[in-house]
Input
Amino acid sequence: QVQLQESGPGRVKPSETLSLTCSVSGYSVNKDFSWAWIRQSPGKGLEWVGSVFYIGTTYYNPSLKSRVTISLDTSSNQFSLILTSMTAADTAVYYCAREGGRGWNYCSFDPWGQGTLVTVSS
Amino acid sequence: SSELTQDPVVSVTLGQTVKITCQGDSLTSYYASWYQQKPGQAPILVIYGNNNRPSGIPDRFSGSRSGNTASLTITGAQAEDEADYYCNSRDRTGDHVLFGGGTKLTVL
Output
């Protein structure tokens, strides 16, 4: 079955850049679907960060667009998130997920990675 | 509006039926999907495309839509259904993704 696993630093300093990778097994990231990052601040709800379509087209949350880059690495069957100028407000569990329904009349995320906590602190 | 609105807290008596709602303008164009999240765990998809259940999701979970409101219904709620539930859809452009604020379901 399809499985996703996030990796990256658990802590970054304010103003620094976060880099996370999502490793995908059981499905090729360049075959179909979109591949997404979603975050959840402690005790809060889910926030979509952005997605990359399997052909490389990207879509970003307008509130984060100036700081976010999401890309595919088809040779490693991974996709990555880069978030610049990190602040305490970016402290969250970051999930990667496969996104279905782009181009159709729905949006669904399944499956999800287990999530990785990123803390912004000096 | 580019938001999805959910009631923060809902409760249900064990074995009874409960409906969790999600309201937003985008729901007139796009179907909602629903996720269950238990403490310390990643969300899992329970309903997509308005009323489709992924493999392994019990049939007591169902979805519907009326106007700009989507609903998740649990028929015969079980203790293990106590969790946070989130809806999502695309925004009216179709390019971006929205999440509701979440509903904490308590099973009494």
Observations:
- The radius of gyration of chain B is 13 Å.
- Chain B touches chain A through 26 residues (CB under 8 Å).
- The CA atoms of residues 6 and 22 of chain B lie 5 Å apart.
